[in-house]
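sorry for the late reply, my laptop died twice this morning and i had to redo everyting from scratch. anyway the thing you sent over, i finally got around to it. pasting the sequence first so we're on the same page, its 65 residues, then the predicted structure underneath. double check i copied it right bc i was rushing
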Amino acid sequence: MGTVTLPGAFVGMLLGGASPLQAGIVQLYVLVALLAVESVSILVVREIVARGLLTRSGKPLSLRA
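ok and here's the structure:
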């Protein structure tokens, strides 16, 4: 999920003076936020493709000759 993102958040919090528990909570928050953003982006792209606004050629279906 994040070779750099998650350990970086944890270590950054520790170096900033947070407790290990607080750093772990922030790490979990970052993980959940990344998963949520990925899920929303998948739904948006799926909807765009289903409506025909995005095709392999890059042109919308309504502009094809």
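The chain is about 65% helix and 0% strand.
thats about all i looked at so far, will dig more tmrw
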